[in-house]
Amino acid sequence: MAEPLSTDEIDQQLNELPGWEYKDDKLTKEFSFDNFRDAMSFITRLSYEAEEQVHHPEIFNVYNTVEISLSTHDAGGKVTEKDIALAKTIESLHNN
Amino acid sequence: MAEPLSTDEIDQQLNELPGWEYKDDKLTKEFSFDNFRDAMSFITRLSYEAEEQVHHPEIFNVYNTVEISLSTHDAGGKVTEKDIALAKTIESLHNN
Hints:
Chains A, B: This is Putative pterin-4-alpha-carbinolamine dehydratase. The structure is a homodimer. Chain A is α+β, with helices and mostly antiparallel strands. The first copy, chain A, has a single domain (27-95), classed as Transcriptional coactivator/pterin dehydratase (Gyrase A, domain 2), CATH 3.30.1360. In chain A, 43% of the residues lie in helices and 22% in strands. A four-stranded antiparallel beta sheet of chain A has the order 1-2-4-3. Chain A is globular, with a radius of gyration of 13 Å. The mean pLDDT of chain A is 97. The A-B interface holds A 36-37, 40, 43-44, 47, 50-51, 56, 58-63 and B 36-37, 40, 43-44, 47, 50-51, 56, 58-63. Strand 3 of chain A pairs antiparallel with strand 3 (58-62) of chain B.
């Protein structure tokens, strides 16, 4: 089972995750796209990674925006290395 | 441009929309599925209807749940017949 990361550990990881914030025990970032189709494509694309990592973000879509929030259910809703790993995957998807 | 519906008109429509609630100026329903894949399939399926109706819900996904919220941006964020129409479409998708 993944252990919760300390605030220091999270802050260190955030250096490599531009635009991501740590708030309310979650890692969060809002992504903006040109339109709904692009937002939906991003959601679909990341859904495969979530399944592969057996770890699932909260996904909030409003038209061309997608807010992603990450925490680990099995670790009391705290941020673990599983969230860091998924955040990095999502970043690389978004930058490709 | 779609006109906001009155509370009475909304209440009347809600009779045909089981599980839907009117709160914070929006029509809302939470759908539950067996797993993430089924939730994502539902989101993908309804995304085509949203594009066709040129009307887009707020979509909040947490693993196997999908919360849909509907209001009309062009009508000051109030509920209009466009929201009723999309809610009915979403219901029919979910029941098929």
